[in-house]
Each structure stands twice: as structure tokens, then as C-alpha cells.
Design goal:
This protein is an all-alpha fold. It contains nine helices and no strands.
Amino acid sequence: MKKEFVSRISLVILALLLFSQVLALEQPSTGFEGDDVEAIENITEGIPIDPETGKIHWGKLETLKTNAEVKIDIINAWIAENAQWLGLIFGMIPEISWLFFINFYIMLFLIAHLVLNLPKYFSFFPNDYVARTIGLAIFVPLLVFKVIFMAASAFTHILIIVWNVILPWGIAIALIIALLVVIFGVYFLIASPKIAMTLIKTFVKDKVKEAAAKQLRNQKTLDLAAQALRKTSQ
């Protein structure tokens, strides 16, 4: 009886050990625990993956914003909600963007040159006060009727086109030009002695021809002078 009991206990212990090994295999260790796993899950949830194909939608991935962009959107939303009256001063509601920066720069440029320094550009005004008043009278309609804002918007669109279209092509063209310069430079270094000799020979030939032509003209002049002297002596 004791032997049977011991053998049964041994079988139970062996079964438990095997079962624990199976559980260990089903739950492999990833090397991440606790907050690390949660952080990774939060990151992967933001990736636009097609549930059918399992592939990433790269077009949608470009629309994802960084933490800095999210904070900028929060600040811009707060300003738009609580400081709309600033739009009367700047011609647009202030925000953290290139559009507002360019709009503000154009405003400062016009204030500096159209209002404050207008007397320096035109001397026919009776005094500085009148000149600056006229400059201010021109500046205010530009601000009120959104002319400055439209100019800033147009310039911003131009910058976007330059940055996204022209600049990449410009870099490619610059690389091609640099490559051509290197190729022609190497060719010139190799062929420069021959080219130099050809140029020297051409230059010398031209000088020789010019000297011969000049000598011929001088000879003709002397001959004519000699003939004239003979006629006069006769």
C-alpha cells in the first residue's frame, strides 16, 4: 500500500511540474513589465493598422501629431476661445504658426516704414506729424480690410510650395550640377595641357597674322609716300 501511495504522489507531482512548464511556455517573458508594457500598448494603439491586411496605413500615419503639435493646438484653441479681441489688433486671431509670424512681421514692417519713417522718404510734407498721420491713415485700412492678412496668407502658401516642391527639386538639381562640375573639372584637369597648347597656338597665330597685316599696311603706306615724293621731284 505504501509503495502504491508513494507512486501515486510521484505521478501527481510530475503532472504538476509538467503543467507548470506548459503554462510557462504559453506565457513567454517579453522583457517588459508593468508600466513599460502599458506604454508600448498605448503607442501601438496610435498606429493605423488595417485589421484585414495587418499593414500600416502610411497616409494616415502622416496625420498623427507629436506631443509638441498637440500642445500647440491646445494653446491655439485657448487663445481662439479667450482672446478673440486680439484679432482686431493683429488682423487675425494670434496663434503659434508661420502665418501669424509672417502677418506680424508685415505689420511691423509697415508701421516702421509707412508710419514712423515716412517723413524720411518724402520731404514734401509740412512736418513729421502730418506725414505719420497720413501713413497711419493708409495703414489702418490695410489692417481692417485684411489686406495684410491676405498678403501673409499668399506668402505662406508660397513658402509651402517652395519647401515641399521647389526645394526638393532644387536639391536634386544642385546635386546634378555638382556632379557635372566634378566630371567636367576632372576632364579639364586631364585635358588642360592640350587645351592650353591649342589656345596658345591660336593666340600666337592671331598675333602673327595681325603683325603681318600691319606690316603690309605700313609697306603700302611707304610705297605710296615714295611714289608721291618721286612725282613731286620730277
